[in-house]
Amino acid sequence: MARFKHLLSPGRIGSLQLRNRIFMTPMGSNLADEDGITGERIRTYYTERAKGGAALITMGSVSIGYREGSSNWRQEAISDDRHIPGIRALADSVHAHGAKLCVQLHHAGLVAMNDMLDGRPLATPSIPPAGKSGDMMDAFLEDEFHIFTAPHAKMGAIKHQVLTAQEIERLVQMYAAAAERAKRAGVDAVEIHAGHGYIISSFLSPYSNRRTDEYGGSVENRARFLVDIVKGIRAAVGADFPVWARIDSEEFLVDQGITIGDSCRTAQLAEVAGLDAINVSAYSDMANGIGHSVAHATHIPGKFVPNATAIKRAVGIPVITAGRIELDQADRYIAEGRFDFLALGRKLLADPDLARKLADGREDDIRPCIYCYTCISQIYFGRHVRCAVNPEAGFEREREIRPAETKKRIVVIGGGPAGMEAARRLSLKGHSVMLVEQSDRLGGTAQFASIAYEPNQGIVDWLKRQLAQSNVTVKLRTLATPELMCSLKPDEVVVATGAVRTMPDIPGSDRPNVFSGDEMRKLVLGQDLDSLANKVDRQTRWALAAAAMSGVTKDLALIRWASKSWMPLGKRIVIIGSELVALELAEFLAHRGRTVSVVDEVAKFGAGIQIVRRWRVLHEARELGVALLPLARDIRIGEGVVTYVNPHDQVRSITADHVIVAKGAHGNLDLADSLRSAGFSVHTAGDCDGVGYIDGAMSSAAEVAQAL
Ligand SMILES: Cc1cc2nc3c(=O)[nH]c(=O)nc-3n(C[C@H](O)[C@H](O)[C@H](O)COP(=O)(O)O)c2cc1C
Fold this sequence. Notes:
Elements: E1 11-13, E2 16-18, E3 22-27, H1 40-51, E4 56-63, H2 84-96, E5 100-106, H3 113-118, E6 122-124, H4 142-153, E7 160-162, H5 165-184, E8 189-194, H6 199-204, H7 219-222, H8 224-237, E9 243-252, H9 260-273, E10 277-284, H10 291-294, H11 305-314, E11 319-321, H12 327-335, E12 341-344, H13 346-350, H14 354-359, H15 374-377, E13 409-413, H16 417-428, E14 432-436, H17 445-452, H18 455-469, E15 473-475, H19 482-488, E16 492-495, E17 500-501, E18 514-516, H20 517-525, H21 538-549, H22 556-562, E19 572-576, H23 580-591, E20 595-599, H24 611-623, E21 627-629, E22 633-638, E23 641-645, E24 651-655, E25 658-661, E26 665-666, H25 670-677, E27 682-684, H26 693-707
Parallel strand pairs: 3-4, 3-12, 4-5, 5-8, 6-7, 8-9, 9-10, 10-11, 11-12, 13-14, 13-16, 14-15, 16-27, 18-25, 19-20, 19-25, 20-21
Antiparallel strand pairs: 1-2, 17-26, 22-23, 23-24
Helix pairs in contact: 1-2, 5-8, 9-11, 16-18, 16-26, 17-18, 17-22, 23-24
This protein binds flavin mononucleotide.
């Protein structure tokens, strides 16, 4: 395809020929078997991405000293010959689909969780500077806090092992031996993980490396450990075997951290030592929650590209980079010589077939990542990787779409993400599927969620496109009455009618300046405006009705854009609630010049948002001046005011032109139950069975489809 000509053109790193410029970036997945063994589960996961057309698959964070220096719950290892058969089987499988396999060699250093658990001292260049504390722990919900801290309860006091020159040499030999093992296992390349706060980057960083010998001080000294490893590996694998390193181009939010000047020099030194390429990443202060989406899994599109460009100018070897880079931009950047290879993480979790679809000219078929951080958040709770929009990620075998043995007539009720995904999957399995939706459009509540958080729109639009191409019959403006269901005579019914929102019992919630979640949705989407007659003046309703008639309110991007100039809401807004919807709405309104306070009785805000994104959302809300007021009791809505009692038993009041009650959503199985009583075989998916947002909708739809 001319449009992605550069991205799809073959490339080369040293002796390694690559079919295009798309790599699967290293991602620790926690999908290995016991004892660091690369087993069937992780093989299937990587093989899917090889099958999907990526040029190279990188096994993320593969331990060189397992369990020594390992950090994850189910981490792959290459520290012993017993790890070779599994990796060889993976290499064979990846090769069978025309891709290459790279192993990322990893030693976790100061964050080697298994060293802490086993009572070993943590390897470090020097005793870590004291006093680094941040807000990371503040955002954990109570149950998450227990899961996160449970391993720590089993640990004794943390000890440090400041590495001597001899111990450094031992580690160099461990890296070299692991690389030689990878070569023996039929792997095509190794990547030295020299970033992200692990052992090598703690030498590279002037913040964590306080040594005064030849491994500390100047950038040349700090890079000596990496240079020694490169030389050690080179000696072990020979001149032709491709070897590269992933480095932090910069440490964000860290005083005295790695600078781009440092990383350019490090890259040059490592090139001279024998590297074939440089993979450009970045790191950040992880004691602060925000650090997790500033650094390697960045929220900021193309964040590392300027640094990759600088490093590319400093070296003569190919440069690989990642970090929320859009495909058309990557194509242009490669054409401009800003970097050579695009490493994709989250986009390949969302759609393993991305490269193949691009090559086939089916860009619109690529299932988009919505940057919800479900994938990386799992790591904090000792779970394996998964993806909110792709239920198969990490469940490649269990949720593989296979033809059904018996083809059935199936009616899916509800056109939100759960209904659309269930219908799509059931149709792909060969069933005859009808989807009925009572409103005039598909998308359900996710449409509304897409206005507040734009990336959500990607998955709603993708599901709509997939349905349009499928054999699913879609009936809009159709109520699933008992008569209709009897006339359709389905073999199976999937109820995916979403959550219902009841107004919580808040004094004053019947005032005309108070909107429930459903009312906000009607207002924004221009639906059922007459029911808002006592809250919205006639002129505004006419304007909204006209917008709805002309189709404007079906265009979510247009609503997002237009709402920047006008919204039928006053300047000062109080949102009552604390979860995903309340916080996304707060951010949306604050961006539109409103003064927003979010108040709720709970202690912690952000339930329903995965931890890595929650850190970000809470940070952004504060940056936008949103007042977050937890532990608020006795909330009452008065005339132009919301009052509550704060944790210090003081009555507080907030002026409010409008109040939005963004809580009270819950499942509702009434329809499912009544259809069951009428004799239908009924299944449920999505929020009607309990609020689970897009992640819950997609995974429950997959489970239902799997069962039929
Ligand atoms: C689930 C997950 C696990 C990750 N694990 C690793 C890892 O083991 N090694 C590494 O170098 N980077 C790791 N990263 C960072 C990615 O390699 C990559 O830099 C990041 O996801 C940005 O690229 P993207 O925007 O294409 O996702 C991880 C990222 C994610 C999302």
